[in-house]
Design a protein that fits this description.
This protein is α+β, with helices and mostly antiparallel strands and 222 residues long. It is built from eight helices and five strands. It has two domains: 43-96, no CATH class; 113-221, Enolase-like, domain 1. 30% of the residues lie in helices and 13% in strands.
């Protein structure tokens, strides 16, 4: 929620520190969390640990404390997203089939992309800028507004921006956020870069379609 407010402030041009301007709107939506429903699943009888909040935690293979019983989805207490639940299922299948470490990559929850389907959409992946700076981490932050994008001009919708966070020493893409039309789609490019430790130059050197909103990704990666 803190990150949502940070994006909203940035989108309306207030930046991280409020300058006193006001944002007008008709609705505010708040989400207040969720409660696991682990009762009646037989966890106790099977000896599976259920934590004090009712979640069934798993290790990096999604194994519970009873190794042949796995935990996936919201019940695992990890990121409550459909994409995460589906990936956990795939990773469990790989582990059950005995795939080797070379063939089986662990799920890294810190690299999960997520989106908020507002208008315009808000999407992000990887390190959170404010938290990283607060922790003293060095980041290169590059940001391009959609007002400079030809497809956005054609669409008549130039709201928002693309921001890419990278390691200033290595150029490895660490994260990014996008506010604007199709942000939930566009964030995929940054998510692939973050998951695979690609560098900003890997995005810059990709020949992309013109005109396309994705061109702003290459510009932001410069
Ligand atoms: C309003 C809303 C919007 C969302 N939007 C998005 C989105 O845009 N993108 C995204 O990635 N995620 C979204 N999510 C989150 C996503 O829906 C969940 O993370 C995902 O459904 C989790 O999958 P799951 O299989 O763990 O649980 P569920 O999909 O909830 O499935 C659990 C199933 O288990 C059954 N069940 C429950 N208790 C028991 C029991 N004791 N015994 C037997 N069966 C039981 C339930 O009936 C249900 O069928 C949204 C969630 C909500 C509530």
């Amino acid at each position: 929620m803190v990150r949502l407010f940070a994006w909203a402030r940035e989108f309306i041009g207030q930046g991280p520190q409020s300058d006193g301007r006001r944002a007008e709107g008709s609705h505010a939506v708040f989400t207040i969390g969720f409660v696991p429903n682990s009762e009646g699943l037989g966890c106790e009888a099977a000896g599976v640990h259920v934590d004090e909040r009712g979640f069934v935690p798993g290790n990096r293979h999604c194994q519970t404390n009873v190794p042949h019983i796995y935990s996936a989805g919201d019940l695992s207490g990890r990121l409550p997203l459909s994409s995460v639940a589906a990936m956990q299922g795939r990773k469990i299948a790989e582990h059950v089939m005995g795939l080797t470490a070379r063939e089986h990559r662990h799920l890294d929850y810190d690299k999960a992309a997520s989106a908020i389907f507002t208008d315009p959409e808000i999407a992000d992946v990887g390190v959170a800028e404010a938290e990283a700076f607060a922790a003293g981490r060095k980041l290169r932050v590059t940001k391009v507004p959609f007002s400079a994008n030809p497809k956005a001009l054609i669409n008549g919708d130039t709201r928002g921006f693309v921001k890419i966070l990278s390691d200033p020493a290595t150029g490895v893409v660490l994260g990014g956020s996008i506010v604007g039309r199709n942000a939930a789609e566009l964030i995929s490019v940054i998510a692939v870069a973050v998951t695979n430790n690609l560098k900003v130059t890997d995005i810059v050197d990709s020949l992309l379609v013109h005109p396309a909103l994705a061109e702003s990704l290459a510009e932001a990666a410069y």
